[in-house]
Amino acid sequence: MLTAIVLIDTEPDRIPEVANEVTELKGVSEVYSVTGKADLVAMVRVREHDALATVIADGISKVPGVLRTETLIAFRTYSSVDLEQAFALGLD
One of this protein's Pfam families, by short name (predicted)? Predict the structure, then answer.
């Protein structure tokens, strides 16, 4: 499974509509409205690398109101259990 984090800049008056349309795209698991440089963050999860182009370039980027995207590809996933084990260093 490949995971991509897509930062989305939108027209200010279209944020809710863009979020709803992006959420409906196959491969998008969730969309967050956020503060900071981006207006929205979409989590994309697909099985094949080529599917990223379909979801992001052919899907998200073409939603009316999307001005630009920046895609971050995840290398590894760390859960809170993994982090607790890493910081515990074997101490009880």
Answer: AsnC_trans_reg
pLDDT value, residue 77: 83
Residue 42, Cβ density class (10 Å: 0-12 exposed, 13-18 middle, ≥19 buried): buried
Q: Please check whether residue 22 is in contact with residue 8, taking contact to mean a CB–CB distance below 8 angstroms.
A: yes
49: buried, middle or exposed (CB in 10 Å: 19+, 13-18, 0-12)? Answer: exposed
Burial class (CB in 10 A: 0-12, 13-18, 19+), 3: middle
pLDDT at 6 > cutoff 60: yes
Query: How far is Cα 43 from Cα 29, in angstroms, rounded to an integer?
Result: 6
Structural domains in the chain, CATH included, are 2-88 (3.30.70.920)
How many CB atoms are closer than 10 A to CB 71?
A: 17
